[in-house]
């Protein structure tokens, strides 16, 4: 979450090559580690890992931790309101 609170965002598209899709998701500091820790995915399977990483981001969106915009075939994730969630115990979103 801190990565997004710093003004960062990612954009992924339905038609991105797998390598570009993974690189874009991997820009989120800590996302790969959190995904592997909580979802027990293989680092050697880029398709599985990147899909799980997007799943984690979508779960954060569904929990109102991240904003998600979908325009045409492009999905972007960004900070919703960073300060609303401060003062709570450490959770998965704080590991990012």
Describe this structure in words.
There is one protein chain. This protein has 96 residues and is an alpha+beta fold. The chain has one domain. It is 41% helix and 18% strand. It is built from four helices and three strands. Strands 1-3-2 form a three-stranded antiparallel β-sheet. A hairpin with a 2-residue loop joins β2 and β3. The radius of gyration is 13 Å and the shape is globular.
List the helices and strands and how they pair.
Elements: H1 2-5, E1 9-13, H2 18-26, H3 31-39, H4 46-62, E2 66-71, E3 74-79
Antiparallel strand pairs: 1-3, 2-3
Helix pairs in contact: 2-4, 3-4
Helix tally equals: 4
Oligomer: single chain
The SSE string, one letter per element, is HEHHHEE
Order of neighbouring strands in the sheet with most strands: 1-3-2
Class based on secondary structure composition and strand pairing: alpha+beta
Unreliable stretches (pLDDT < 50, length at least 5) are 82-89
Give the N-terminus to C-terminus distance in angstroms: 5 Å
- How would a crystallographer describe the biggest sheet? 3 strands, antiparallel
Instruction: Please state roughly what percent of the residues sit in beta strands, choosing from under 5%, 5-15%, 15-25%, 25-35%, 35-45% or over 45%.
Output: 15-25%
List the main descriptive attributes of the protein structure presented here.
96 residues, alpha+beta, 3-stranded antiparallel sheet, 3 strands, globular
